[in-house]
Design goal:
alpha+beta; Lambda Exonuclease, Chain A; 5-stranded mixed sheet; 4-stranded mixed sheet; globular
């Protein structure tokens, strides 16, 4: 697997263009989530179609930032500072890492260590649930695993942060080691491959479309 890095600033127009047509870590949960009956949700098919259309047209979906999303973005710097203070680690920014048809844009890499960090700044109820269960929410779990897959790092810290909680409960950190999730990473690779095949089929359909006689 040949991995390339585009160091455009995350969120910039160049960064969005670089991500077009590839399966990104932030949407890995859409590919992996299953209903109780074992079937995927409709969001999986919608996402694959979106990727196919990006490959055909080069057009990107409209970027809509909700109030909650904007608040999370504004709190990310706080969460990084809180993490650095608690762990004594130094973080560095990076760009888009990608290999052929999938990629990831890590929130941060850890200086001097073979690991990275995924920061989430969720609403209070989500942060509370994470504190209570000690479990990384499923959609974010798969995002972390795709970060590990693409970057080749040994571990990834998942961080949930909420500044309105008491000091002792503002920051949740859980380390996910590559060696402990090898089977899940293998399943993710299989699902990414299937999704890519389906996207290619949709591209072929569009390219070879003929009007009904």
């Amino acid at each position: 697997m040949t991995v390339r890095i585009n160091n455009a600033e995350q969120g910039s127009e160049e960064w969005h263009r670089a991500r077009a047509g590839i399966f990104t870590a932030s949407k890995a949960g859409d590919l992996m989530a299953k209903q109780k009956n074992g079937k995927p949700y409709a969001s999986r098919k919608d996402y694959i179609t979106q990727i196919a259309l990006e490959r055909i047209t080069g057009e990107l979906p409209e970027q809509i930032t909700s109030a909650a999303m904007q608040e999370g973005i504004e709190r990310e710097k706080q969460s990084k500072l809180a993490y650095e203070f608690k762990t004594g680690r130094e973080l560095e920014d990076t760009g888009l890492w990608y290999a052929d048809f999938f990629g990831a844009s890590p929130d941060a890499l850890i200086v001097g260590e073979n690991g990275g960090v995924e920061f989430k700044n969720p609403k209070s109820s989500t942060h509370y649930k994470t504190l209570k269960t000690g479990i990384v929410p499923e959609t974010y779990y798969w995002q972390v695993l795709q970060n590990l897959l693409v970057t080749g790092k040994d571990f990834w810290d998942y961080v949930s942060y909420h500044p309105s909680f008491p000091l002792n409960s503002q920051l949740f950190i859980k380390t996910i080691k590559r060696e402990d999730v090898k089977d899940d990473i293998a399943n993710l690779v299989l699902e990414l491959s299937k999704a890519n095949e389906e996207a290619n089929e949709e591209v072929t359909f569009i390219n070879e479309y003929k009007e009904p006689e």
